[in-house]
Amino acid sequence: MLEIIKILEIVVWILLILVILIQPKKSSLNLTTFWNEGVWKFERRGPEKTLHRLTIGLWTLYIALSLAYFFMA
Q1: CB 1 within 8 A of CB 68
Q2: Name one GO molecular function term (predicted).
Q3: Whole-number Å distance between alpha carbons of 14 and 58
Q4: Rounded-to-integer distance, Cα 35 and Cα 13, Å
Q5: Domain residue spans in the chain?
Q6: Backbone angles phi, psi at 41, to 5 degrees
Q7: pLDDT tens digit string along 11-61?
Q8: Is the confidence at residue 2, as pLDDT, over 80?
């Protein structure tokens, strides 16, 4: 069982790296562009939103697998 968890952990780790690498890079942060009446306007749309959610999901799965491995060892 521990071997399966370790293999799944490695697969999730590789997928997490790939998802992070294909995310679009923010070129620069121009505060005057995003500032409007005291409200920040950062909104992910389309594929960027999907990649963001996938990153969070994979990270959560990786943490869960790591904790499972820790408590089962």
Answers
A1: no
A2: protein-transporting ATPase activity
A3: 10
A4: 36
A5: 1-13+46-72
A6: -115, 85
A7: 999 999 999 999 887 655 555 555 555 555 567 788 888 999 999 999 999
A8: yes
Distance CA 13, CA 58 (A): 8
According to the model, what pLDDT value does residue 35 have?
Answer: 54
Report if pTM > 0.90: no
| CA gap 55, 49 in Å, rounded | 10
Query: 40 with 34: CB under 8 angstroms?
Result: yes
pLDDT computed for residue 44 by the predictor = 76
Kindly report the length of the chain: 73
Spatial neighbors of 64 by CB under 8 A, at least 6 apart, are none
H or E, element range at 14: helix 2-22
